[in-house]
Amino acid sequence: MTMSIIQVTGTGKSFANDRTPFYGVRVPTEIKTMIKPLSKLDKNIFRKILVLIVTAIEGKEVEYKQLKELESKDFSEEVLSIIYSGLLKLLQNALRVPLESLKQELFKEDLHELQIPEDFQTDLASVVFGNRRSTIDRVSILSRPRLPQIDCLKWRVDVGISTSVLNRVLEPTVLMEMTLSDGNIHTFEVPVSKFHELRYNVAFVLKEMEDLEQRNVLKIKD
Amino acid sequence: MAALMFTSTPSIKKAVALINKLDDGKFRLVLSRIMQRLHLKDERTFSEEEEEKLQQTLGIDGPELELVLQTLEFLLQQAAYHAAKPAVLSQQLTQLELEQAKVEAIVSVWTTNGRDVLQKLRQQTLHPSQLEDINWRLNLQIAQSSVSKQKLPNAMFELGVRDSEEGVGKKKIRVEFTHSELYQFYNQLEMIQKQLDGLS
Predict the structure, then answer these.
(1) ipTM over the 0.90 cut-off
(2) By C-alpha distance, which of A108, A189, B76 is closest to B68?
(3) Which residue does chain B place closest to A100, by CA atoms?
(4) B112-132 pLDDT, tens per residue?
(5) What share of chain A is helix, strand, coil (3-state, %, to 5)?
(6) Backbone phi, then psi, for A103, in 5-degree steps?
(7) Which of B5, B147, B152, B163 would best serve as a mutation to test chain A binding (most A beta carbons within 10 A)?
């Protein structure tokens, strides 16, 4: 008689389902490094650091000296920098995921796994799920890489009356001056036939965009 | 009363005399070519080689050919300038003492090609930059470095603008639009269209 023994070893972690944590498959280095110093951090200092991070995420300027000011005999500026980087990375990862895809309880579970103190978990969750979130999302979208946009379009319709070669012309032309967001100004003439082509194409793309917005909700899986 | 397009100057008189002696068939061919190239501003109607051959076939020398070609170009340019009606053209050419066959040839070539030439001349412009090409691309952004799982449509337009200045070639203007930005652009184009509609 033969007997097969299959040994099953647990990982020692909680029995949570095998979903990927919000920060990815591996714990980012910056987060790993900050866990130990974070456990000793005073709640007040933590909150002040968090304020700086949220300011930065909302696209406003944060100066290094603002972090340095928080230095104390227990926490050198180096340690503060490690904590700042770790928390920033953590929040950036959480904010990447759309609100619909990340549940607050699971977020806190992941924080628990990372050994983030319970106290701090609430504060972090309020950044991700609180009322600042819509501003943060808006800033994210605005900061995406883009080609230049039209900042200002000035135009003119002229009708030629006569030229050196024709006594009567009576032919309209459109003149456009386009100021782009990269500062360039382009001035050019648009013959009437080209103008019709431009108008047609813009209308066509608009329609295609509308169609796309209607149906893409079904096709792209979350 | 139609405007007088031609006055009988000494050089015109001389040219008329030469023209009247030309072979009808060859005359028509020369006229055709001049008409075809009337709208081209700075280019020669005939190349130097062709002019040499013409001297042979028409039986006239260099300066005479020069005068004949210049006069014929002038006659047609004036017809274009005044958008002359064939009957008026015919009458005024006859007054210059061109012989009947030559008058008929000129009026005939004008009647056939006149409309086309006027169209081309009307569209001539002094502005250096013209919009020539319109290309576009419709995209759906699904992610960026700070946000994942998006569905953000955007359109990119590439406008090819030809610059008539030497060596500048074609400039490509690349612009991006979100839905609302494109809609705004469309509304501006509609305003322009209203202006154009108001003209007709």
Answers:
(1) no
(2) B76
(3) B149
(4) 999 999 999 988 888 889 999
(5) 50, 15, 35
(6) -85, 145
(7) B147
